Amino acid sequence: MLTLTELERELKKGEKKRWLIENLIPMGELTIMYGQTDHYKTFLSLKIALEVASGSQELGVTQSGKVILINTDTTSQQDIFLRIKALQKASYSDHDFLESLYLNDGYVESAECNYFRFDLTAKHYLNDPEGNAYTDGSFEPDIDEWKDAFKYIYTDDNLKLIIIDTLSQSIGANSVNDDTAIRKAISNLKEIIKSCDGNIAVLVVAHASFKNPSKGIMGSSIQHNDFQSVLKVKKSKSNFVLHREKLKSKAKGSSIPFKMRSISVMDYETLYVDIGKELSDLENEIISLSKQGHQKDNIRDNTFKTHGQHYNNKKSFNVVFGRKWNSLLEQGFLASGQQDNN
C-alpha cells in the first residue's frame, strides 16, 4: 500500500514510454494485430519480425534483437520459411537471420517424445490428450516452463520480440468468445514479459469478426480492452494499411501504407510486404543536423540552402519541410524537444 506522496515519487522515478518500434510496438507490453482473412496479417508480422531481427528502420526507430515466431495457425513452416526468404531477398540481402530468428510450429516435445500444443490457457504447462497434467518433476506447473524457455533466450541471446500467430489457435480448445480463457491467456503473456524483466514485447495476431468486420476483433471484447495496443490491417483506396487503432502515443489513429509484391524464391512464387519507404536526402540531412544538436529553425534554414532549388519558393519548401519533420518525429528519428524558437 502506498500513500499518494509515495506513489507520486514512484511515478517520477519511472521511465518514459519505451518502444521496440517507435510509435508502433511498445516495449514491455502486449500488442494485438488483427484484420480480415486475406489481409496479409502473417506476412506483415514477418515484416515486423525481420525489422527487429535486422535492426532496420523502415517502420520507425527499431531496437534490434532476437525474435521468436510461434506459428500455431494453419500456415506450414515451409511457407513461413519461404516468406522469410522472400523478405530477405527483397529487403534484407545483407542479413542471413540464421541466429536472430527462432521458429516454433506451435508444438513442444516432451522428454517422452510426445508433442503438445502451445496453450496459453492451460492450468499446467503440458497436458496430455486426456487432460492429465505432468507433475512428476519432468515439467513445472503453470506457464513456468514457457517462461523459463523465453527467459533463457532473453538472458543469453538478447530476445526482444515474441510473435504468436494466431491467438485463436493458442488457447487450446477454448473459444475466443470465452472471457475467462482470454483473460488467462493475457495474464500468462504478461507473466512471460515479466520473466524477461519487462524488456521484451509480445505481438499477437488475431482475426477480425467474420460476420461483421467493422465490429473489430473476432471474439471477446476483452481482447480490445486488455491489450495495451491494437493494430488493424485494413484496405485503403489503393492497397493496405497498418492502422494504429489503439496506442498510447500521439501517433494513434495514423496508418502505415504497404503493398504486397510477388517474388520468386527457390523456384517458388510467393509474396512479401513492401513498406516502400526509404529516407530521402532531405530527411537524412535533417536527421544528421538534428544529431549535431541543431534546433528546428536552424535545420530548416540550412536544408533550404542545399535543397531549396528543387522548390518554387521558400514557402513551398517550408511546407514540405514541416511534413518531413513531423513524419520523422512520429517515427522516432528526431527528439521531440528540438523545436524552433518561433
Question: What's the short story on this structure?
Answer:
With 342 residues, the protein is of the alpha/beta class. It has nine helices and 13 strands.
Layout: helices, strands, pairs:
Layout: H1 4-13, E1 19-21, E2 25-26, E3 30-35, H2 41-54, E4 66-71, H3 77-91, E5 101-104, E6 107-109, E7 115-117, H4 144-157, E8 159-165, H5 179-195, E9 201-207, H6 222-226, E10 229-235, E11 240-246, E12 255-265, E13 268-274, H7 281-291, H8 296-307, H9 314-330
Parallel strand pairs: 3-9, 3-10, 4-5, 4-8, 8-9
Antiparallel strand pairs: 1-2, 6-7, 10-11, 11-12, 12-13
Structure description:
35% of the residues are buried. Helices cover 34% and strands 21% of the residues. It is of the alpha/beta class. The radius of gyration is 22 Å and the shape is globular. Helix 2 (41-54) crosses helix 3 (77-91). A nine-stranded mixed sheet has the order 5-4-8-9-3-10-11-12-13. The chain is built from nine helices and 13 strands. A hairpin with a 3-residue loop joins strand 1 and strand 2.
Q: CA-to-CA gap between the ends? A: 46 Å
| Tertiary shape | globular
Residue-averaged pLDDT, rounded?
84
Q: What is the SS-derived class?
A: alpha/beta
Tally of strands: 13
The largest beta-sheet arranges its strands as 5-4-8-9-3-10-11-12-13
The biggest sheet, with number of strands, parallel, antiparallel or mixed sense and barrel status, is: 9 strands, mixed
Number of DSSP helical runs:
9
Helix content percent band:
25-40%
Strand content: 15-25%
Q: Rg to the nearest angstrom?
A: 22 Å
